[in-house]
Amino acid sequence: MGFKDLKKELVFLAGWSVIPNAAVILVCYLVSGQFVPSLLGIAGGMFTMFADMVMLWLSLNIFLSRGPGWARAKAMSGYLLRMSVVGLWLYFAFSSPRINSFSAAVPLLYPTVLFRIRGIFFKDGV
C-alpha cells in the first residue's frame, strides 16, 4: 500500500464524513446550545482519526518491509501507540469543558462505518 493509496483513503474519509459531521454538530448545537465546543470536538476527532490512519499506514509499511517474525513482535507496540493517541484525545476531550465529548468521539467511528458502507455499495473499490 503506497502513499497514493493512503491519500485515496484519507480523501474518501474526508469527503464522506462531511454529512455526518454536519449532523453531529447540528445535534450537539440543538442539545447544548453551544456551537464552538461541538466544532472543536469534531475538528479534534477528525484530526485524531487521520493521525490514527497515518500511523496505521506507517506501521503496515514497516511491518511489510521486514520479515514476518519481526512484524509479529512489533505489531502490538504499533497498536498500543495508536490506541494511546486515541485514548489521550478522548481523555482530553472528556475532561475539558470547552470540548463537546460526543462530537469528539463520533469521528473516531467513521472509518469502520464508512469502509463497511463502501464495501457493501461500491463493489468496484471506489
Written account of the structure:
This protein is mainly alpha-helical. It has one domain. Helices cover 83% and strands 0% of the residues. The protein contains six helices and no strands. It has helices at residues 3-16, 18-32, 36-65, 68-95, 101-105, 110-121. Helix 3 runs antiparallel to helix 4. The longest helix has 30 residues, at 36-65. It starts with a helix and ends in a 5-residue tail after the last helix. The model has no long low-confidence stretch (mean pLDDT 88).
What are the main properties of this structure?
single chain, 126 residues, mainly alpha, 6 helices, 83% helix, 0% strand
- Count of strand segments: 0
How is the main sheet built?
Answer: none
End-to-end Cα distance, whole Å, is: 15 Å
Helices and strands: which structural class?
Answer: mainly alpha
Overall geometry comes to flat
| Percent of residues in β-strands | under 5%
Number of domains: 1
- Low-pLDDT segments: none
Secondary-structure element series: HHHHHH
Q: What value does the Rg take, in angstroms? A: 16 Å
Number of helices: 6
Which percent range fits the helix content?
A: over 70%
Oligomer: single chain
Rounded average pLDDT: 88
